[in-house]
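sorry for the late reply, my laptop died twice this morning and i had to redo everyting from scratch. anyway the thing you sent over, i finally got around to it. pasting the sequence first so we're on the same page, its 321 residues, then the predicted structure underneath. double check i copied it right bc i was rushing
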Amino acid sequence: MPVCVVQMFFAAMAFQSVIESVGERVKSLKEGDIVMPHFLGECGECPNCKSKKSNLCHKYPLNFSGLLLDGTSRMSIRGQRIYHHVSCSTLSEYTVLDENYVIKVDPSLPIEHVPSLCCAFTTGFGATWKDVNIEKGSTVAVLGLGGVGLGVVEGARQKDATKIIGMDIHEMKSEKAMIFGVTDFINISKISEKSISELIKDATGGLGVDYFFECTDVPHLTINEAIESTRMGYGTVIVLGAGLVLEWQMSYVPLMFGRTLKGSIYGGIRTHTDLPSIIDKCISKEIKLDELLTHEVSFNEINKAFEYLKEPNCVKVLIKF
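ok and here's the structure:
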């Protein structure tokens, strides 16, 4: 297994790193390269990779075992094995990674932007052209305007959607949302007498939207409303939010009327094939990531970062060593 030792610099669960050393079988990376560790790999040879229909590689999968694919641990402390989290645990100063889970980053990309591309923003942005291909003139609703949701908004704007409805429980998110391209903002905490689907249909002449992106951490509470919010016949719901509740009750009747419910990991983006083009868009300022970063703390203040995440004006927190 080709491996490299990576020194970590991280930002609220997304990371930039530098290659400290590489094994003799590593071909694509060298010492000193700026990289991002990732939870997805891409072999280019398995059925999913060859089909180009999925970013979930069979050979380098999303890994929940707590170990490398060969059964060894990537981290230790004083000789004691440490188990990692979701393929690329990076809350350590140094870690060992398989070459395929490491993405080389153009050094001209500002260091503070790299973390947003490891997960949140790329997940939302990529979903608008990989998981679904938003057509020009489409109507789009986005529930949850954090890093993922604003990525959806930016992607929908670039795909020339005519109406982009942003929804959140915090009024302060409206300003950020408008910068990225939201045409209509709905504060769902202020309008308690109407359901989400009713609000969406009011904003679309009773038709519902073509695409609804669920970007919250409570999808079990919102999926049915999301489905009802889409256009009968061909409306599509894309679930990007990951909650702690793994099961929910769903009404299947709305789906029978031609709607589609689709799940997504990382917006369908393939780490080695698709991600470089998104990085290029950020370098050229076609994508403006500066607006995502709202707070910055040192590593010693990491607990403060979690408190910031609860604040209504917080989108992304940068944590620096």
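The chain has ten helices and 15 strands.
thats about all i looked at so far, will dig more tmrw
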